[in-house]
């Protein structure tokens, strides 16, 4: 009995301390110091584990609000967005378990608002040239709502611009895995105040904004499939990582979608010529010993075979675009390097 009484006393003390800490965090948060508030909540969180579901709901709703405020102020926005999302989801979880719905509606609304804020933040970062930050925010939004695959696409595009090719490859490969196309319809309207076009998730949402007097000049645009663009950027990222095998596979994937894609043929030729360049450098480093001269002959023959393998791609590109001077010049260079005089003269005469 003595131990039971002691246990009850300890629990009561813990609950009192926890409530006092939450009230302190709430007070500090209301005064505008979210950073200090989250520090208190993080230190107190272990005490909430054995609390009633209703108390947990109070705690996590406050935590979500504090983290949301930090994210809105662009303080470690992507990370705080994720943590706030988890806190709000915990609110709904505990309220479902207790059957007492105090904050669920507000938590759901906060989640939608945060997603919108982070998407806008990612767009603003991209426009400002802060590509790494933009990619991070877009990817966090995607993790929160995987049905909205456009955010994964935006994360991939921003990663390419940031020259973060490892992330770009990861995101583009994921887009291919989920068979992303990006094809659809975008609903625009002009903001009367900013004079800038904004997008809406549906015609109904746009009409509501127009009826409220906030927007005008509605415009609807059909968006074509982005599958070729996804593969082009993925192949480019592989090229930048010197992964020529995967780059070649990806360019061939483009040709399966569009057999007349000139860029794919040109880049396949470029890829072969890059391999030739690497062999040329290896040959230049050889000495004059009998063994090295033997190696020279083998590498030189291999170099010519690689250069020769670029020809069909360049000829196909010229067949599609006969007046493409850049492709013609590249092909002339290959013919010259292989001493293919007849082919060189024939192409030269037709230019």
Automatic annotation (TrEMBL):
Coiled coil: none
Placement of TPR repeats on the sequence: 228-261
Stored SUPFAM superfamilies: TPR-like
Pfam family name, one: TPR_8
Keywords of the record: TPR repeat
Cited InterPro entries: TPR-like_helical_dom_sf, TPR_rpt
Name of protein: Tetratricopeptide repeat protein
């Amino acid at each position: 009995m003595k131990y039971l009484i002691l246990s009850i006393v300890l629990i009561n003390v813990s609950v009192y301390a926890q409530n006092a800490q939450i009230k302190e965090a709430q007070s500090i948060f209301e005064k505008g110091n979210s950073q200090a508030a989250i520090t208190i909540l993080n230190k107190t969180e272990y005490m909430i584990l054995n609390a009633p579901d209703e108390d947990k709901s109070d705690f996590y709703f406050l935590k979500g609000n504090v983290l949301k405020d930090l994210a809105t102020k662009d303080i470690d926005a992507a990370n705080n967005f994720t943590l706030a999302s988890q806190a709000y989801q915990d609110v709904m979880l505990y309220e479902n378990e207790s059957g007492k719905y105090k904050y669920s509606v507000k938590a759901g609304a906060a989640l939608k608002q945060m997603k919108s804020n982070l998407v806008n933040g990612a767009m603003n970062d991209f426009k400002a040239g802060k590509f790494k930050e933009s990619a991070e925010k877009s990817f966090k939004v995607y993790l929160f709502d995987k049905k909205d695959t456009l955010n994964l696409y935006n994360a991939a595009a921003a990663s390419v611009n940031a020259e973060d090719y490892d992330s770009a490859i990861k995101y583009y490969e994921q887009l291919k895995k989920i068979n992303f196309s990006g094809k659809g319809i975008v609903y625009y309207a002009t903001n009367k105040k900013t004079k800038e076009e904004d997008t809406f998730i549906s015609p109904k949402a746009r009409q509501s904004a127009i009826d409220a007097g906030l927007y005008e000049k509605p415009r609807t645009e059909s968006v074509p499939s982005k599958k070729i663009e996804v593969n082009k950027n993925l192949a480019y990222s592989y090229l930048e990582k010197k992964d020529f095998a995967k780059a070649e596979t990806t360019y061939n994937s483009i040709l399966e979608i569009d057999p007349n894609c000139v860029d794919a043929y040109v880049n396949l030729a470029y890829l072969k010529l890059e391999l030739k360049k690497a062999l040329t450098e290896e040959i230049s480093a050889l000495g004059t010993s009998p063994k090295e001269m033997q190696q020279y002959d083998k590498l030189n023959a291999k170099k010519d075979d690689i250069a020769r393998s670029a020809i069909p791609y360049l000829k196909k590109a010229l067949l599609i675009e006969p007046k493409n001077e850049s492709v013609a010049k590249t092909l002339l260079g290959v013919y010259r390097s292989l001493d293919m005089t007849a082919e060189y003269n024939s192409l030269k005469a037709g230019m």
